[in-house]
Amino acid sequence: MTDWVNNFREIDPVLFHAKRLLIISLLVAIGPLTQGALLKKCQLTWGALTAHIKQLQKAEFIEQKHIITLKGPRALVDVTQKGIQIYHNTLTQLKEVVGKIEEKRE
Known about the structure:
Elements: H1 3-10, H2 18-30, E1 33-34, H3 35-42, H4 46-58, E2 62-69, E3 72-79, H5 81-105
Antiparallel strand pairs: 1-3, 2-3
């Protein structure tokens, strides 16, 4: 079997999902966001967002805390150090896979 196929198997299965990768990418790039802001930026339903947040929390890639704002209580979501590390590892692995595929095509 080709090595790039094996590289796919090494990618963390929690982040190997487009919406969860998008959530982590937003948190790394922008910083902490409320669930409402994530909902709008990711164009998800509340149920889907909640499910993805639960998976990311279970893997300890994000953390959530409740804050009080002028608009009332909000759930603030932030990426953890473990989440940042796995995010960068995942991007590196994906770049390697793309590179190997491009080499095969040449």
